[in-house]
Amino acid sequence: MKRSLVVALAGTALVLSGCGGSSSGGGNSSTASSSSGGSGSSSAGSGSSTAAAAPTSVSTDKPQRDANADLVIWADATAAPVVQKLADKFAAKNGIKVAVQIANDVRGQYETAFKAGQAPDVIVGAHDWLGELVANGAVAPLQVPASVESGFTKNAVAATKFNNQTYAVPYGVENLALVRNTALAPTAPKTMDDLIKAGTACVSSKKCTNILSNQVGKQGNAYNAYPFLSAFGGGIFGTKANGDYDPNNLIVDSPNTLKGAALLAQLGKQKVLSTNIDDTNADNLFATGKTPFEITGPWSLPAFQKAGVKYAVDPLPTVAGGGQMVPFLGVQMFYVSAKAKNATIAQQFVTNYVTTKDAQVQLFQVGKRPPALTAAYDEVAKTDPDVAAWNTAGKNGKLMPNIPAMNSVWGPLGQAEADVVSGKAQPDARFKKAATEISAAIKSGK
Known about the structure:
The strands form four sheets. Strands 1, 2, 3, 6, 13 and 14 form a six-stranded mixed sheet that branches. By secondary structure, the chain is an alpha/beta fold. It has helices at residues 80-94, 106-115, 130-135, 146-149, 154-159, 192-204, 222-230, 255-269, 282-287, 301-307, 343-353, 357-363, 374-381, 385-393, 410-421, 427-444, and strands at residues 71-75, 98-102, 122-126, 161-162, 165-166, 168-175, 177-181, 213-214, 237-239, 245-250, 293-296, 311-314, 328-336, 398-399. The protein folds into two domains: 21-174 and 330-399, 3-Layer(aba) Sandwich (D-Maltodextrin-Binding Protein, domain 2), CATH 3.40.190; 176-328 and 402-444, D-Maltodextrin-Binding Protein, domain 2, CATH 3.40.190. Helices cover 35% and strands 14% of the residues. Helix 7 (222-230) packs across helix 8 (255-269) and helix 15 (410-421) packs antiparallel against helix 16 (427-444). Keywords: Signal, Sugar transport, Transport. Belongs to the bacterial solute-binding protein 1 family. This is Maltose ABC transporter substrate-binding protein. It comes from Metallococcus carri.
């Protein structure tokens, strides 16, 4: 029997942070033609679809599962248009009805809907959600053939696993890098001192107002703060013998991390970092030529391209007394709900369709994140030099922890960063306090 296709999209929505937003420490899940989406290797139904019905208005505050749809997908406002195109083709091939709905907080709204028995079949989001989703029994294990899995990068595959079980399919890898306005800073700074010198000269000449744009804000940004800690070998969690992050080995107050905290305080005093720069103005400072540098991810590039800024993507600099600033690696993924209404259809869409080269090339448009699938990466890298530049900048990056304990980290560590950058607190004492706060939160399960 033929079924009509419905793709329900809201007109406006707030944009999630990528590895991130309010639910994680990652960067913006922002926007950024491509080939058509691939087709799955098996069919979830028979027949072909008729013309799509008129879009249904879906609340971004409280998206509700479409009871008439065979497959419901929740994504943020940026990812939804691309996911819609993929869903259109999948639905047409399989003769099913699909609803792609926008949620302004995919992770939080999914948790609420799951408990109420109204969860979508598929959600799109960051890999650091995984540990909590598994702990809550909220996502289903996936059976991805070894022949398919081998086509993805090693880090992307690792991000989909928890306790050696696969729970998602990756589509994009993201990391921070130094984006440079080539007109204001013709030479890439190798060191933080070089960056400060070039930025200070730009400010002194009144061409710029800021040495560097880097998100801190009044509550801090632990994701953007991490590279300043990693430059000294510091970080958040130590690792077990098998390389997994160990929630019982918190290193926020370790000697190496405290060196990074001292650097944050120093850069705050020098006005290189500022709590006045956050996710509302960081990109605009760079896009309007008010700073020669921004530490950001690929999700920011569409705004810079729209503004006509000539830029280059460089690795993060080294720091005096330490080494290279190393960013977290984040992976954007598709998850299948443990309570999917039509689990077979959902699994086929995610494991057979999202894994194709054409689908992954289309998904590259979501924030310009380098594709997780090697074949798709090679395809887009032919025409987009930024892809290889992001890859180079993230070469030594470490996967952001996806263990449930990370939920206890973002708030306390971010606030500690903000307090030392603003000069409200001394770095050693404030980071030791943050470690105590994080440890207590982990033990209490918050």
